[in-house]
Give the backbone structure.
Amino acid sequence: MLLSSNDIFLFISFAALTGVALWLLLRPLRSEASASETSRGDSEVALYRDQLEEVDRDLERGVIGEVEAESARLEISRRLLAADEERKKTGRTATDPRWRKGTALVLALAVPSLALGVYLAEGSPGMKGQPFAERLNVPPEELPLEGLVLRIERHLKQQPDDVRGWELVAPVYLQLGRFEEAANAWTRAMLADGVTAGRLAARGEARVMSNDGVVGPGAKQDFEKAVELDPAEPRAQYFLGMADFEAGNRDAALARWKELLETAPDDANWAPAIRARIASLEQRPAISAADEPMIRGMVDGLAARLAKDPADLEGWLRLIRSYEVLNEMEKARAAVAEARAAFPEDEAALARIAEAEKSLAD
């Protein structure tokens, strides 16, 4: 089997890395004993010999007696023998190459063999090389969702005005929980090919999802523009009904959803969910037990958002009405106080807040 240029380069790289590893391992074994160690041993031996001669000279001059001289000779001789033995030991280690050659041979054979064994056991030497770009060049149905997104994103970098690309990637972003990117994708599609009711409704839905399921001002504006272009746009009508419901306008939500069902095709996949929602709301004049957890979650999300961004008058008004619908009057009054604190000098805003507070007393 002929090797490609990439395979040859890969094996050369592996060989070079193995060579570097062996060089680092064998280098200490090739070096001789330290010159400083040998020199130190010779110096110590010479020093003790000089001391022996110095003892003899001191004895001749009468500086020390025979007893002191003999004692000094014994101690210096003991040290001299020890230093000489250490010097010889160091010399043998430095000059005897047998152990170093054996160790070097073992390492030279073991390192490449171990590397090759691990690669054959854990790697895939028979697998054909497949660069990352080639892995994306497969039929879309064979790609995982993330791979499909990467392929579309790569295409859109080259052709940013491809409307079809933005319309393909936006729902995938939504499915992956990348809501802001989904909204941005719909914006890019509209910039490239104009505004439509469907694109506005889709962007509004992405904005709702990024806002913890609450229909915020931006999303509501998208839905309102969508129904201006197409009053029968189902997604926009549904979320506008949700906006009414979140604001405590139960009757308005019911009316909108009923009108939507009247014009719905027989095979509309969203119709059963709306029928169930209408039936649930009509069972009781207030919020049903089944709907309360959902509504409470929306209200809690709205309250959390307003805590971070209190400069949203419509949000405060919806929060006040929502607490009223949930019959949580203390929270409603607390929301009134917080709303006033957010707009201390805005007379128009304060007037609307006062109107909302008045409804709490009625």
In short: The chain has four domains: 1-31+109-126, 33-95, 140-283, 292-361. Residues 32-37, 130-136 have pLDDT under 50 and may be disordered. The radius of gyration is 43 Å. Residues 292-361 form a domain with the Serine Threonine Protein Phosphatase 5, Tetratricopeptide repeat fold (CATH 1.25.40.10).
